[in-house]
Structures are given as structure tokens and as C-alpha cells.
């Protein structure tokens, strides 16, 4: 697995080595040893799977507050999505900057999103499916969210949004006094 850094510290893209033969292909999706430089003392405690039907549908932007802040590793196992991380760490040099990458069942890329970063994605192909590996368990009381279309962040989404949850459309907009998340 090759780990590619991005301009946002801790946000990385892992390239998966796919071994092909006449039967098809094999790839190692997760390896604690290979990902030790990223995981440190963290462990995967929950794996989630989402299916999203409509191209243009958008989920996010989500994160969890301390003490259940989480690192997420996200893979697309069917279809194609535009996957985005936003740096909400007040002391980070890339505070309020975002990074996006196309994840697909074809390119086998995995996005690593550290604690203090919000995550969201837009579906580019119908019936796309994601697998999320989480280092903290789901804790509704620690859920945080921000708007995918917040002008302060100005994320470039490839398609017009065709479907979004009431919760995700209702996150408050950030203002110039926003001081980020505490970790
Ligand atoms: C995360 C989670 C959710 N739920 C329940 C809560 C809701 O009743 C339902 C859907 O949850 P939510 O609308 O938060 O799911 P998404 O909007 O698809 O959020 C997902 O996509 C965005 C982009 C992410 O980054 C989140 O980590 C990921 O969970 O599942 C659970 O029961 N367990 C869980 O671990």
C-alpha cells in the first residue's frame, strides 16, 4: 500500500496494490502493519457500509467531537464518488482548507481522514457503495457537521446536488469567528 500525502497534514490517499491473474484480481484492503505509520496507537473499532443511489447525491460533511474524535479510512467498493476532507483543526496551517479525490471500485484508492477533519462525498455513478473504517465508535452525542456548500470553505463538487439528508442540508454555516474543533 503506497501512502500519498496531501496538502492537509494527516489527510492521505492510499494506493492499493491489486494482484491480477487470469481469474481476476486480489487486493489487500487493510493491513495494520502496512498502515502503522498512519494508525499509530489507533485501532479500527467499527466498519460501516453505505449505499447511495442517485448520481449527485451527497452525504456529509461529518466528524465526531472529542473524546470520540475519529480517524476514518474510506474506500469505494462499487461505483465512483468525489470524496472530500475539510481541515477543522484550529492550529493547522491548512485550517478550513479542503482536499478532494475521486474514489472508485476501479482505482482502489483509500482516503485517510484524521481526527479534526470533516468528511463528505458526492456520488458520481448510480448505486455507489462506500466502506468506512473508524477508529472511534459511533457516538451520536459527539456528532458534528458542517455544510457541504459553506462559502467559507468553497468545496468544488462535480455535480449539482440531487439528494441530501435534511440533517446535512441544515448544518449551520461557519462564520469568520469559527475557531475550529477542539481535539
Ligand atoms: C455513522 C452511523 C450512523 N448510524 C445511523 C444513524 C442514522 O440513523 C443512519 C444514517 O446515519 P447518517 O445519516 O449519519 O449516515 P451518513 O450521512 O451516510 O454518514 C456517513 O457518511 C458521511 C460522509 C460520513 O463521513 C459518516 O461517517 C458516515 O456515517 O445510521 C448508525 O447506526 N451507526 C453509525 O455508525
Present the secondary structure layout.
Blueprint: E1 2-5, E2 12-15, E3 18-21, E4 24-27, H1 36-39, E5 46-52, E6 58-64, E7 72-78, E8 80-87, E9 98-104, E10 110-113, E11 117-123, E12 128-134, E13 143-145, H2 166-169
Bound molecules: dTDP-4-keto-6-deoxyglucose (T46).
Active site: 62, 132
Catalytic activity: dTDP-4-dehydro-6-deoxy-alpha-D-glucose = dTDP-4-dehydro-beta-L-rhamnose
EC number: 5.1.3.13
Description:
By secondary structure, this protein is mainly beta. The protein has a single domain, classed as Sandwich (Jelly Rolls), CATH 2.60.120. Helices cover 4% and strands 40% of the residues. The protein has two helices and 13 strands. A six-stranded antiparallel beta sheet has the order 1-2-10-7-12-5, with no helix packed on it. A five-stranded antiparallel beta sheet has the order 9-8-11-6-13, with no helix packed on it. Strand 3 and strand 4 form a beta hairpin. The longest helix has 4 residues. The protein is globular and about 55 Å long. It starts with a strand and ends in a 14-residue tail after the last helix. The mean pLDDT is 97. The site of dTDP-4-keto-6-deoxyglucose has 12 residues, from strand 5, strand 6 and strand 11.
Amino acid at each position: 500500500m503506497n501512502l500519498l500525502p496531501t496538502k492537509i497534514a494527516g489527510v492521505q490517499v492510499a494506493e492499493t496494490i491489486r494482484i491480477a491473474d487470469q481469474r481476476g484480481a486480489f487486493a489487500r484492503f487493510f493491513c495494520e502493519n502496512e498502515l502503522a505509520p498512519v494508525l499509530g496507537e489507533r485501532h479500527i473499532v467499527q466498519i460501516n457500509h453505505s449505499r447511495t443511489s442517485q448520481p449527485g447525491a451527497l452525504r456529509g460533511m461529518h466528524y465526531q467531537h472529542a473524546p470520540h474524535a475519529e480517524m476514518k479510512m474510506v474506500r469505494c467498493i462499487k461505483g465512483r464518488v468525489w470524496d472530500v476532507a475539510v481541515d477543522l483543526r484550529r492550529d493547522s496551517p491548512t485550517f478550513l482548507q479542503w482536499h478532494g479525490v475521486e474514489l472508485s471500485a476501479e482505482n482502489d484508492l483509500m482516503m485517510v481522514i484524521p481526527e479534526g477533519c470533516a468528511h463528505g462525498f458526492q456520488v458520481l455513478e448510480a448505486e455507489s457503495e462506500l466502506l468506512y473504517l473508524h477508529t472511534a465508535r459511533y457516538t451520536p452525542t459527539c456528532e458534528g457537521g458542517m455544510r457541504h456548500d459553506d462559502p467559507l470553505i468553497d468545496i468544488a463538487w462535480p455535480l449539482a446536488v440531487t439528494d441530501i439528508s435534511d440533517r446535512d442540508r441544515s448544518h449551520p454555516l461557519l462564520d469568520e469567528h469559527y475557531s475550529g474543533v477542539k481535539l
